[in-house]
Amino acid sequence: MALPLTAPLRALIVEDEPLAASRLAGLLQKQPQPVQVVGTAESVAEAEALLRTVQPAPDVLFLDIHLADGLSFELFERLEIRSPVIFTTAYDKYALRAFKVNSVDYLLKPIAPEELTAALTKLQRQREAAAPQFDAALLARVLQQAQPAKEYKSRFVVRVGEHLKAIPVEQIAYFASLEKVTLLHTREGRRFVVDYTLEQLEQLLDPTEFFRLNRAYLAHAEAIHDIIHYTNSRLQTILKPAAPDNDTVLVSREKVATFKAWLDR
């Protein structure tokens, strides 16, 4: 049973889906304990403006994580927020266990009425117990847990005569940019033209596996057969299979420190 309060809870809803915001407001009106919605916002900017003007501060914030102009976590970098937060999110619950500590709770969409009631009851108990407020450091850690891992390309489709062939990333030794053409080199020594620049490939490939050696080469770690000290504090890499026309593949001087750190990760 909900614990009685002397006044209705004052809630601020930050949600970029109008239907979801309207549904949440409706659910709050039906709660056993009165909840007054003092404002709604659809973006980080709108939420910031409201939080600067609403006085006194809301008793609880309902924050969607992904908003029209960024992540709601940005609010904690711009403002000192002491109001407890209940996040509304579609993320998997196992990725958000950290939301359960330090006055932080979360609700998975679509929000179930009984889950909302339980979260508000928890909030009421924490208010009466004067529970310590959470901090921005906690939210930063939660953000790292909540963000889905970036997905990198797993294969490239190349043309072989009149046919198309899929090359798994595991079979790629390196990419070489020669005369405005990018060539994919497999570990077996085959070469295929791909319709990407090296700059684009850097974004598409896992940076723990591939390194941009210089303007012309992007290599997989296992394709780097040997590394030799070269002049002017540069490094020469020996690739396997060998670079086209036995090209000397140097690590540019400004990349040497980063390259060493990448190898030693």
UniProtKB/TrEMBL annotation:
Pfam families the record matches: LytTR, Response_reg
Keywords in alphabetical order: Phosphoprotein
Full protein name: Two component transcriptional regulator, LytTR family
Molecular-function annotations in GO: DNA binding; phosphorelay response regulator activity
SUPFAM superfamilies from the UniProt entry: CheY-like
Gene3D superfamilies given in the database record: 3.40.50.2300, LytTr DNA-binding domain
Positions bearing 4-aspartylphosphate: 64
Species assigned in the record: Hymenobacter psychrotolerans DSM 18569
InterPro entries: CheY-like_superfamily, LytR-like, LytTR_DNA-bd_dom, Sig_transdc_resp-reg_receiver
Chain ranges of the HTH LytTR-type domain: 156-265
Residues of the Response regulatory domain: 10-124
Keyword Phosphoprotein attributed: yes
Classification of source organism: Bacteria, Pseudomonadati, Bacteroidota, Cytophagia, Cytophagales
